[in-house]
């Protein structure tokens, strides 16, 4: 890609960031959102985060991980359990990363 | 007080703004491990794909969108037409259109310029933390505090500031260290673990649990779809499943009471 094209992409991507992220903030006055839709959006945060995470944990190069003892899968399970018990992000990160490193080295 | 430039002069207003800003920073702090790691990975990737340091710096400072940047890089490397790169990034960013609809009721009073700025600094984590908190506040009843709106926006800005700083610092570090970061560290996975820790407390109540399970399943099944469309479909189907669960619960309670 030429230098000019690269900078066109950079400027264009900036417009994409602003356009998508402020879409309804700007157009919400003109495109009214039904009460039901606004109500449903309460569930968006958890759904979006899980949808980001699940493929990273369960897939490896586009394929389902082969075994239940896969380092990523097992350390994710450890992290979920740890977070449910301790409610501490720092502890969960430390335990999860220790589990991941240990399982990879085994 | 040096905070005057940032928070304004009237003491009551300045105090409310500062408190909310700091609360936002505190709320996002644990998630910054994920943001920073992701920034580092993106910084390294931009240079590895062949961007010059100047182009990579321009991209991180202006575009400020990890997933869109990461999706654009292989296309840039493959010399794809500019419009294809931009279209791909738009689709990857579609989830933010959904997020902006969620944030709209809270930011609708602001001027166009401020709404554009608030949109620009929205992140996955920032949206999730804020909406979670504000929905709980709303459920607790109307807030008599006249500064409630101000507190919300400054809480959001506190999150954005922490997020921006950690993202940019680590991304720039990645650009300059691109040659020296060993892939064997498993750094990317630390980011995923941080996201897991952030998500667990949000999956509360049956509708959220069902929505999360469905969204996760659809995301995995749809991971092969082009342009990361699987992510968008997963969010929409997940929300629908959560709503359906909520309705079913209400019907069940209604039936038990002997109502229609």
**General form of chain A:** extended
Arithmetic mean of pLDDT of chain B? 86
Which range best describes the helical content of chain A: under 10%, 10-25%, 25-40%, 40-55%, 55-70% or over 70%? over 70%
Q: Determine Rg of chain A (CA atoms, Å).
A: 20 Å
Query: Please, how many helices of chain B?
Result: 13
Helix content of chain B: over 70%
Described by the principal axes of the CA atoms, the overall outline of chain B is globular
Order of helices and strands of chain A: HHHHEEHH
Unreliable stretches of chain B: none
Q: Major sheet of chain B, described briefly? A: none
What is the largest interface, and how many residues per chain? A-B, 68 and 87 residues
Q: How does the major sheet of chain A shape up?
A: 2 strands, antiparallel
Number of continuous helical runs of chain A: 6
Q: What is the beta-strand fraction of chain A?
A: under 5%
Strand percentage of chain B lies at under 5%
Radius of gyration of chain B: 21 Å
Give the total of beta strands of chain A: 2
Strand order of the largest sheet of chain A: 1-2
Q: How many DSSP-defined strands of chain B?
A: 0
What do you see in this structure?
The complex is a heterodimer of chains A (106) and B (260). By secondary structure, chain A is mainly α. Helices cover 74% and strands 4% of the residues of chain A. Chain A contains 6 helices and 2 strands; from the N terminus they run H-H-H-H-E-E-H-H. In chain B, helix 2 packs across helix 10 (148-177) and helix 12 packs antiparallel against helix 13 (229-256). Chain B is globular and about 65 Å long. The model of chain B has no long low-confidence stretch (mean pLDDT 86).
Summary?
Chain A is mainly α.
Q: How are the SSEs placed, and which strands pair?
A:
The complex is a heterodimer of chains A (106) and B (260).
Chain A: H1 3-21, H2 23-27, H3 35-40, H4 44-58, E1 59-60, E2 63-64, H5 71-86, H6 89-105
Antiparallel strand pairs in A: 1-2
Helix pairs in contact in A: 5-6
Chain B: H1 4-7, H2 11-28, H3 32-48, H4 53-63, H5 66-77, H6 82-92, H7 94-107, H8 112-120, H9 124-139, H10 148-177, H11 187-199, H12 206-221, H13 229-256
